[in-house]
Structure formats: structure tokens, C-alpha cells
Amino acid sequence: MTTLSPSPTASDATRQKCRETLDRVRRELLQAQNDAGHWTGQLAASALSTATAVSAMAAVLQHSDSQHSDSQHGDSSQPQQQELLRSLIGQGMEYLSGQQNGDGGFGDTDRSHSNIATSYLVLSASTLAEKVGQQPLPSTAIDKLQQYIDRSEGLDGLRRRYGKDKTFVVPIMNNMAIAGLISWDDVAALPFEAAVFPQSMYRFLQMPVVSYAIPALVAIGQARHFLGRRAFAPIRLIRSLSVRRTLSVLEKMQPASGGYLEATPLTAFVVMSLAATGRCDLPVVRNGLRFLKESMLDGGCWPIDTNLATWATSLSIHALACDPDDDGRWYSERLADWHLGCQHLTRHPFTGAEPGGWGWTDLSGAVPDSDDTPAAILALGLMQPHADESRRHQMHEAMIRGGRWLIRLQNRNGGWPTFCRGWGKLPFDRSSTDLTAHAMRALKSIPCRPEASRGAGPSQADFQRPERKAIRFLNRQQQPDGSWMPLWFGNQDRDDESNPVYGTAKVLIAGGIGTRPEAAACDYLLHAQNPDGGWGGGPSVATKIRGLIDSDPEYASIAPLIPDDLHSSVEETALAVEALATVILRTRDQTEFAAPQSGMPQSGPALSNPRSDRANAGLTELRPECSAAVCSAAVNDAVLAAILRGVEFLMQSVEDRRHQVAWPIGFYFAKLWYHERLYPLIFTAAALGKFLRAFNEEHDPNWPR
């Protein structure tokens, strides 16, 4: 490998064009701020969510006792409410009728490949809609859908998609049983009675679903108990005695919005399951139905979740602060107060999480997790320089609370799970590389007092042990090709639907993993770069975007140019560019810090920033071999060339307005695909900002990454 000076150069023309492109992206991102000063974003409309909402409302109509409900509750069974539900069902079916893919199946979003789960849910929704007098899918569409299901091997294909995790398989089959497509005896009998135990005991009880699915466990378990084959007498008695107590658990876990986790599918599964047993008048059903009515989008569809406001805001702050010319005009007291107010300060009723974390939104259904919490901590650190003294103190305290919350959540193997420490090995509650890298990066950013001093706040040692464990976990999880596999993001054009570009980028951005793992990761990204200069994506990128332009007036008006050889996504390309540029920035910091030993002029000590003191010191202590000379070996001609090609791809994407077409790279529980309108803007702004910092001759080593 040809080693270069860790002071890379780019032509003035490239930097100028990048500057102009970044200014445009920043304007668009700033324009997306809402009146309250933060970002809300816009999640994709989802055929899967729409199908479950339709099924839930149809189940309520089908099983309501009109006379009983009219006299006592006057809600969904009143004539006007019934007409409203029929109208919503009709709009939902109209939306679904336009979402069928050419192969006959349905995907999670309008840009997603068909999958067996969504296809079954749409078939169930169509069947239930017809039963309540609404227009189902046309017979020709049903025929094509059934042919797709048959080719996908039906229920065997569904089970194979999710493996040992029953979190989503059982709800789908429950929905099919409600629609009369399968027998109730085919639905697994879930031990809903276990919900009466404290949440801390769930993992010891070997629950067949993860923690966030307890509402579905209770509702679906009860439906199967009442409508399926009768269990053995002792078990049947226990479950019968547990019905009322577990319903009480459902009520306590339901947030003020009525939507469990703010998620349409989870809420819909609860509503349809209880309605199928004739209990449409339960408060849980009425509140869940209210959530479904209020969360419907224009066009008769539902998103996978209400919004990702906290997550989108944290990422937007990071992206804007990456710009070397950022003036902080995005900051406001309203933004700071809103972000501070999103921190959960009481034990959460849904997962039992201790105070101190952040969820993905400010809405009542959010649950604190180990991806949104690190993002919020990092965002607060970037807001601190712009805040007054009082808010700086509040931010400091909030960051410390968040850091301690993360440390308590760390698993024994050194990684971070999503919600619950030590839950098990099911998806979303096992240790994950992207979450671990994000948590480690956030812990490095929290100001700590020196070990020898006394006073309030954590000491350096409080964070060093978790960091060491995290580094060992990440090193063990690195794939032979140098990549890392994430949990929350995927690539639909890969056979296994994984997204190593995202996972590798997140670990590289966090840093501290050691020279050899970092070099291997850089090599992976170099080899993964596509001929068009970008990363990720696949053959479906050009095809799907062209389809949108041809069928949707919104995208036809944008009319982005689609090159014949387009393969990459804007989001994944931006992540790879940011990661490689971060390696260069880190190498420059290491070189400048080591300047007196190497005879090089020192432009400024990297340790002068209090928020990066422990990060740099910890890197030297944990990885002594990672000296400036060794680290610079990762920065070579190939890396610089790859960054420049990636930047060119991003600049051309913005010029062609392809950055306005978000790509489905996100996973939301059990491989449910989504895309977020702000992701291309956020990721591109961060990447171009990091590029300008890395290729700026007047590099500021004190900038807090």
C-alpha cells in the first residue's frame, strides 16, 4: 500500500463544487425544520401497515355487538362510526390495489421487493374487507397474489423467513385465522399468562417473543385461547384465570396515543385479536382504534410508525455540525429544550427501562433504546457550545444520565442490545455491532473528570471498562472480509438482506477498534465500491426509481435523471464517504498529536478539546500499536480515490435530484422495510461536511467528532 501524508488534497474545483452542493443540501435540511425548531421527517407509506390497519378495523366491524355497544359505549358501533371505519377500509384497499408488484406479491413500501409476510397480510386484509362489504382486491390481482404465495412456498416460506423468531410469524397467522384463511389450530398457542410476571423475569421464562411484543403476546394468545383448540385442563384453567390480569397489563402498557410503540402493525394486531373474540368495547380496543384513525396518512395508507422525530433531529444536528463552516444557526433554545425534554426520566411502563434513555420520537409510544440514546447524547454535545450556561449544565447532566443508562444496558459480551440487557438471542434484543459502535462513540463524547480528582460526575475509569469490552466485542464480530453486519439496516438486493456498508461505516466512524481491524474495514469499503462510484444499492435502484417517475406525479415533477449504470443508493454512498473521511480526520489528529515525536510541526494538540480528551487517551492506552505512523498506513491513494469518486456520485445525485428519492434501507422490527425522507439529506450533508474537513488544509483538530 502506498502511504500518503495524512494531509490529503483535492482540487480547488472539486472542493468548490462540494461547497456549493453542501450549501444546497443544508438549505433543504434546514427548510425541513418544523415550527418547533426540530425535525419530524416523513416515514414511508407501508403496504404492510395499511393491510394490518384494514384488518383491524374490519375485525371491529365484523365482531361488534351493535346493540350492546350502542347502549353502553357509543364509539365504533354507532352508525356514523361504522361508516367512518368503512370509509377508511375502502381507502386502505384502494391504496393497496395500486401497490402490487409485477411478480404478484406486495412489498413493505412502494420501493420494496415482494415478500411473503406482506403478501399474506394483504390477502387477509382483502378477505376481511370483503366480509364487511368493502371492495376487495380485483380477482385478477388475487390470482396473481396467490401465485406469488405459492411460489414462495406459503406458510413454510413464511416460517423460514423469520427462523426461530415467532415475534412476527404468529401475528401474521393470527391475522389469517381471523380472516378465515387458516384454522385457529394452526396458530401457535402463546403463553400469554406469563405477562403477569415482572418484566425482569421474562428472559428466564424463555418467552417466545421479544420484550416489545408483549401486547401482541397477550392479545393473540387470548384469541388463540378462546378460538383455537382447547389446551389441557390445568393449562386451560391457568390461562382462563389470567385473562383479566393480562388485560390489565395491556391497559397499563398502552400509551396515551393508543398506539403501542407508535406502531401501526403492533397496535392493529392487538385490536383485531381482541375484536375477533367479541370484545370490541374494551378500552384497549377503543384506544387502539383511535390511534389507527388518527395516524392514517393522505392517500389512504399508514406508515410503519408515526415518526422518528428524535432520531431524525439528532442525526440532523450531527450532519449540520459536520460542515467546517457551520455557524450554528440551526440551534435555538426551543430545539435544546425539546431535545432535553425527550429524555425519559421515569421507569418506562413498556419495557421496564430505567430512567435516562431516549426513544425514537417525542410521542408517548416511544421506548428508550441504545441507538437513539447515543444519537441524542452526541447531539447535546454539539449543541452545548451554542447554549447559555444554564442549558449547558442541563445538557451536561442529561448526557451523564444517558451515559450511565447505556453502561447499565451493556450485555456481558460487551455489546449493546436494543432495549433490554440480557434478554436473549432473538433479534433486536441481542448485542448488535451498529448499536455498540454508536454507544461507544457517545460514551467517548461525555465529559469526564480525571481519575485522580474528586467531585460529581463520572470519572474516566467509569467509561474505560465498558469501552474495552465493546472493542473486544466488535473485533470478534468483524467478518472475514473486514465488514460488520448491522441490525437495524439492510439492503434488499442482497440475498441475506444484510447491509455491511452501513455496519462497517458506523464502526469506522466510532473508531478506537485498532489499526488492523480499521485497515481491514477500509479495504472492505474499497472493494465494495460500485462502478458508478457509489456504494450499496443494487439492480432495483434504477428500476424502482424509474417506476416511481412513470407512475407518481410527485416524482414525475421532480424528474430526476437516472443513469443507465445507476446501481448505488445515496444513503449508503454517503455513509461510506463519511466513514472513510472520518478515518482521514482521525489519522490527522493522531499525527498532529504525535508531532513532537515524529519531528513534524504540531498544528495543535488533539487533546485540547475536553470532550475528546478521554477518547484520544483511551485509544493510546487500549491500542498502543496505533501510533500516528501506523494509523496513517490506512490512508493511501486508493482510499483518497474512493472518497473522491463517492463525493462525485453524491454531487451528481444532488444535481439530478436523486437525493429527493429516499431508498428503503431501514428495518423496523422483524425485517419490516422503511425509508425516511430525511435520510438522503442527512447522510449527504454529513458526508460532504466530513469530506471538506478532511480535505481542508486548515484542519481544526479540536473539532468534536
* Name of the level-1 CATH class of the largest domain: Mainly Alpha
**Helical element count?**
28
Q: Report the helical percentage.
A: 40-55%
Name the quaternary structure: single chain
Coarse morphology: globular
Q: Could you give the distance between the termini?
A: 27 Å
Number of strands: 4
Mean pLDDT: 86
Into which percentage range does the β-strand content fall? under 5%
Mind telling me which CATH architecture of the largest domain this is?
A: Alpha/alpha barrel
CATH topology of the largest domain: Glycosyltransferase
Radius of gyration, taken over Cα atoms and rounded to an integer in Å: 26 Å
How many discrete domains? Answer: 3
- The spatial strand order of the largest sheet comes to 1-2
Structural class: mainly alpha
> What are the segments in which pLDDT stays under 50 over at least 5 consecutive residues?
1-6, 66-74, 593-634
Q: How can the largest sheet be summarized?
A: 2 strands, antiparallel
GO molecular function, one term: lyase activity
Domain Prenyltransferase alpha-alpha toroid: 93-133
Protein name: Squalene--hopene cyclase
Family: Belongs to the terpene cyclase/mutase family.
